[in-house]
């Protein structure tokens, strides 16, 4: 094993966890070809095949399963030892992997992530945005970013902004010929931009007023799975859309979109970074969390270096 290193071992565990060379390669920041070559070298070294591979699936062989069972705990100990050493660094360095949903990522990009990189140029941030909620430990992330009410109970949460709101909007041109909805059920007589969730289900628009909760199965001419595409459709007057307020705030201010049912969209839980409890977080993670807590306390963009206090 002297010619092999942690990268090869991490690769085996990533493929076993994800069940796919392509997905594991993305997690590891490698090309699929490079990952295949790493595994081929490892299999040549140990003298057995670790994976059964077809064009459609990847699974562990019996030898591979034994390998993962033996190597996994030892590799956890090695990474824990490395984290202990990194925690003693004076200068933050290395890579921080963050999993987030797109709207939240956009909100913290400038005030937190880019500001952190300006202050700590030796750190690389790997930000992955997706709608599904993942197990950040199992999938190799240092941090997750979700609404506070979606953070797993066994994680430590750090709020990084004020409570958020939804917004129901349409282009002024849409309302020239259509009566504005006054209560959520009125939406059933309108063209709405339908939203498909990562699990394939259609999103039911949630509303609440005076303790009364209502969910509407909005119907309309198009179904989309990405907020930026839904925004384009609404701007073109196709129908009414349901967004996080942060995604269309500038459109509202500029008059490109008009809001309805404002009194039915109360604030929701704030977005929060979350992470597993660690005795020895790396200097990069510790410093990033310190900056995040500052952002959470102020609720306003952090000053850049050189700006007046």
UniProtKB/TrEMBL annotation:
Pfam families: HTH_1 (PF00126), LysR_substrate (PF03466). Residues 4-61 form the HTH lysR-type domain. CDD domains: PBP2_CrgA_like_5. Keywords: DNA-binding, Transcription, Transcription regulation. InterPro entries: LysR-type_TF_proteobact-type (IPR058163), LysR_HTH_N (IPR000847), LysR_subst-bd (IPR005119), WH-like_DNA-bd_sf (IPR036388), WH_DNA-bd_sf (IPR036390). PROSITE patterns: HTH_LYSR. GO terms for molecular function: DNA binding; DNA-binding transcription factor activity. Belongs to the LysR transcriptional regulatory family. This is LysR family transcriptional regulator. It comes from Phreatobacter cathodiphilus.
